[in-house]
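Q: I'm teaching a short session on how sequence maps to structure, and I want students to see two examples side by side rather than one. Could you give me a first protein with its sequence written out and its structure tokens following it? Keep the formatting plain so it prints cleanly on a handout.
A: Of course. Example one:
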Amino acid sequence: MVRALAFAYLSRRMAPPILALKAVRLADGPVMLFDGVDLALEARTRACLVGRNGAGKSTLLRVLAGQTLPDDGERTVTPGTRIAYVPQEPQIEGAVVLDHAVSGGAEQHRAEAALQAFGMDPQKPAQGLSGGEMRRVALAKAFAEDPDVILLDEPTNHLDILAIETLEAEIAASRAAALIVSHDRAFLERVTQRCFWLEFRQVRRLDQGFAAFDDWVEKIEAQEAEEARRLDRAIQREQHWMARGVTARRARNEGRRRRLISMRQDMADRMKEMRGTLNMGLASSGVAGKRVVEAKGISKAFGQRVLLKAFSTRILRGDRVAIVGPNGVGKTTLVKILLGELAPDAGEVKLGTNLTVNYIDQARGALSPELTLKEVLTPQGGDQVMVRGLPKHVNAYAKDFLFKDSQLRQPVKSLSGGERNRLLLARALANPANVMVLDEPTNDLDMDTLDLLEDLLADYDGTLILVSHDRDFIDRLATSTIGLDGTGRAVETPGGWQDFMSQNPGFFGAPAKVEPAKPTPRAPAAPPKAAAKLTYKDQRRLAELEALVADMPAKIAALEAALADPNLYGRDPAGFERYSRALETARTQLVAAEDEWLALESRREAIESGR
């Protein structure tokens, strides 16, 4: 059925694009960025533009926006088409943010509503905004203009998770076609219907959402690698690997997945035990030699603003703890308290012995623009980099971070923004440490670097504390997640972001005003006998979930194919809305089913292993 729908869709005559490039060529000095690029956006199409670092994605967006002229080729726009463009580093002008939001011609009431949707006061002064606030204002301006096409360059940078979800909702509700450059996989999977892949100066097209991108690319690369093997073109194979080597590592190792599931189960068991013992004063009862941090009843406030109230946690060696919540709720403050850099107002924090901490904050330090890449990695000279206490040749270490040998002699100022961030991480991660703290590590990183960083951290045998808004990154790494809502509430849940949200629905909404009554103390019950196997009800539910998870992708693909019809909305507006609601429901059901299946499967494995 899915193949038939796909064939019917591809066979239909496509509606004329409202914005298109044909045979576009553009050089940046001696470097050819585009050599015959074709790209078309039809009305209401939501697509992503994906490519390796330095491929020219941002430049291509500027060509589409009409801000950069190509050397050759054509850019065509349907007359009357309104285009909104949000660059990677927006500049906000005017006395208050409302001035900027209406500067493109948006009606004031629409601009005010858009700003409020993104959590911004329209009368907030435009000077002194944080990076996240500037991005919110720029996004609000774009949506307030009610464009026909919206071009977004890394729109989730410096946004917290809740703001990203607001952006997802705005894109879904907008009638505009969208082309998005982003490193946020979870975001792209939720909003896109088409992928454009910028590779080797040309663009390839996939008429599916980003969830299908990795498999599609791997098939293409496998075909090309096989052709190269048959032709015995070893040099071409090497270049191919250097360009897209991370993709091969993107396929998740089954053993690593099971290890993460096991670690999350261990964390869940430990947290159950902790809830039963913390109130009895576990001051020095941590596991000898394994305790990293033990916090009991910690609270923190700045003036009248309460960030933490009576929060307790225990972090052991090897744990990977994510800290999530809106911007400004105290995530970095909690990290500093846990590391002993900031004293709590109440409660106590005990640190383990022999801790060496590597703290990579949002700023990530600075790089001298005149230094070469090699000089940054070997500040003492020579050809060796000390990587966590062991020597490694600088060329080999640079390759680990996707740099070519020829780049070692280039000055920092010649590197792209993503390459500079990659170099900063390479320098920082070489330092020996048994505790790694990453504060918003995914900001401004391209997908290749994110994949590399994820692999490095997945194999890291120390303790990881991660502050991030990247839901996919958290889900793939975290053994537990601590959520802060800014009113003092802090909750820790085993697993990643999806686990946290499924076990704490509404946590980031308005806090309850009435506290529950304290239960009457009861005598402790005898511990239940360990289950020998899943209950009959759970076994049936596990089978139902397996069938549901297997069937839902086909249903989702069919709905996506129906919505991809460019004439559907004009022909049947009610049908379009019905299909849209059905697609959103199906995606939500699939995520919930996968989470429930993972929980039941983890429980089954734990029972069978005798734990």
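Q: Perfect. Now a second example for contrast.
A: Example two:
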Amino acid sequence: MQPRIRVIFAQQENKNYMKHCKLTLLIITFGLVMSSCGGAENQEDTNTDAPMDSVVTEVLDQHSYSNVAEVKTTHLHLDIAVDFETKMLKGSVTHTIENLTGSENMIFDVHSLDIEKVVLDNGEQTTFEIGEFDELLGNSVTVALQPETELVTIYFSTAPDSKALQWLSPQQTAGKNEPYLFTQGEAVLTRTWIPCQDTPGNRITYSADITVPSQLMAVMSADNPTEKNPEGKYHFEMKNPIPCYLIALAVGDLEFASLGDRTGVYAEPSMVEKSVYEFADVEKMIEVAEELYGEYKWGRYDIIVLPPSFPFGGMENPKLTFATPTILAGDRSLVSLIAHELAHSWSGNLVTNATWDDFWLNEGFTVYFENRIMEALYGKEHSDMLFSIEYEEMLNENSAILEGDHPDDTKLKLDLIGRDPDDGMTAIAYVKGALFLKTLEDAVGREKFDVFINSYFGDHEFQTLTTEDFVAYLNENLLDPNEIDFNVDEWIYGQGIPENSVKIESNRFDLVAEISAKIPTMEDVASLGIDKDAWTTQEWMHFIRQSPAETSADKFVLLDETFGFKNCGNSEIMAEWYIASIKHGYDGIDADMEYFLINVGRRKFLEPIYTELAKSAEGLAQGRAIYEKARPNYHAISFNTVDEILNWES
């Protein structure tokens, strides 16, 4: 294969960075990087007639101050102590750097960190300048370098309210005896606990020495221990280059249990047994994934089940997926989430979006891959139901976004300048992205499409890509050779869902919808003819969602008395039931819903429930009363979302 040359113009508009460089030209050829800094007029020298084996794109990481085009971190070493009393991390981070341009300064991202001093590899302190604070991006830290500098060590401490750190009291854990800490770095929160160049466009290796209370265990997105160290000292290595947002830490009263030769689970002692049962098929998932799209490159694949306040279903931290306990349904019905996080080991972790505007490259591929894993393990009928549930959610969100202030957020390629990258983490990136790939598969045939995806992962492993990079690769390696005329630009740069989208159908869902239509006129639940032992979680969710608008609250009473939706233990079903009950005026859920909202911090559930409550004055008052009790249990990612829904002022 011919060398692929990426010519990237990075126009950084963050005002602190603009003091240093208005335009950066980055040329990368097999890891060789040359950079120049000058005025915007340099763009006139760009070769716009690049051959097919070249990609010419404009890359703007508008969410980082860092000057990675001039000088970049190649390895990061953490040496920190975890202090639960002060809720602070204290210590140092040492950056091994590559000075690409002979720059006299290196720029880092920080947010609400206390910087004590900065030391270079000669042992002497150097000067540093902290830029103006931005609520979203934090501050730039500009460190003065010497020509021979190879190491930059920053001594720092975090703030007790760092947005990446969730400090839990013993009462907020399953065991109720020991405190707990976990981090969540995606998208731009790693800078709130580590001074770093916080852009997905730069990949680094890392190591860490972490000191914790002796009764607790520390684990990271790296090689991990399986037993507690009596001195509370842990060393970690991540030898594959990853973006900074995938550096992750958890500290708690943890135990490890093996799931297979290269898989295992960490959890609080009371949750280990049920976690092992729930994740019994994880080793099979890896085998299926490798059969589809190539070797798993990360060695081990372990899972840590976090306390309920974790804001996401899962986070694909390499070697150690962070997972919500809300997937422990007791019947393995929600393990598609693990398939999703495992798929990220290829899409997102192995091949990463270059900026958060390209987020669909991470998530669209992952949802598609997840669905293929589930089809291989459990059959097409099951995988179709799973995707149909997500498809319904995406259509609803697509309509809401089109009617809102940012209709362009229904495009796959985003423009999030001046906005939180979390705004782009919608069903559009996930499900429209996967739908785009499913439609491509339908156009060229699965066999050819699988060859293409295999090559895509293989040719770009441990690299970052823009959307434009992908489009060029798609044209060169799939569409042009097969003479396929496909509306790529409409899918990526157009609003909404194109007309040529494949149709997502499920015969079992059709039958469920027919039964739901009978709810308003039923005399008793038995007349619906439901075989409750035969239905899957997804069928129950569809049944609840399809309940007709004219259904009266007394029918919901009958359904709840028969099926016990409000406290059934399956978080997906309970969340759907609470939303539907609010719509239909059934208040028999109130006590159980309040308990759920106080104890579960997963944003996927919180956002729609609070949104539904906020649609009426009475519901808004109820939501605010619950939220006052619940908010201290939520991660910043979740409470920032709910604050906006309820117009909450803390």
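Q: What should students look for in example two?
A: Point them to this: The chain is about 35% helix and 20% strand. Also worth mentioning: The chain has a mean pLDDT of 90.
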